[in-house]
Amino acid sequence: MSGVWVFRNGVIRLVENPASESDSNARRKVLVHQPTDEVITSYASLDRKLTALGWERYYDNPDLIQYHKRSSVDLISLPRDFNSLKSFHLYDIVNPANESDSNARRKVLVHQPTDEVITSYASLERKLTALGWERYYDNPDLIQYHKRSSVDLISLPRDFNSLKSFHLYDIVVKSHSVFEVRDI
């Protein structure tokens, strides 16, 4: 995955960046607020943009910088040090394609080792627990899982049937070698 993270209308997406770093063939990733073409270089800058879009700072976890949008179950979880920010953290704020599109194919979460389609939180929790994830009970409005060895937090709606594709991708990004999203 290479390119530039572009921030437009509250949506962040990865686009190709033809400029490569001077000392390698790797491509540098940056977060850009498209309406202003501002490169986001600090949490202060990101905070201003997210606040303007209705996100609120969430102070319950001292190990993370988190934002929550009241009108949704979305929770953005980021490491406290901006310089530790990785591209996978930005998936928390990527807004997927319009899921209300009637032509869109339904997506399911699949546990790759067993090829099992995850159809309940009980099934998902068994798989995540086996991978070292623990249930996180600090928010009564969400079902959350935290992995002790990381800053990752998976936040899901309480109703399994309310899962959206961005929730599924959040699980995949944070457990990429075990889960995948498939169209059905």
From TrEMBL:
Superkingdom as given in the UniProt entry: Eukaryota
GO biological process terms on file: regulation of flower development
InterPro entries to which the protein is assigned, alphabetical: FPF1 (IPR039274)
The family this protein is said to belong to: Belongs to the FPF1 family.
Name of this chain's protein: Flowering-promoting factor 1-like protein 1
Organism: Cinnamomum micranthum f. kanehirae
Organism phylogeny: Eukaryota, Viridiplantae, Streptophyta, Embryophyta, Tracheophyta
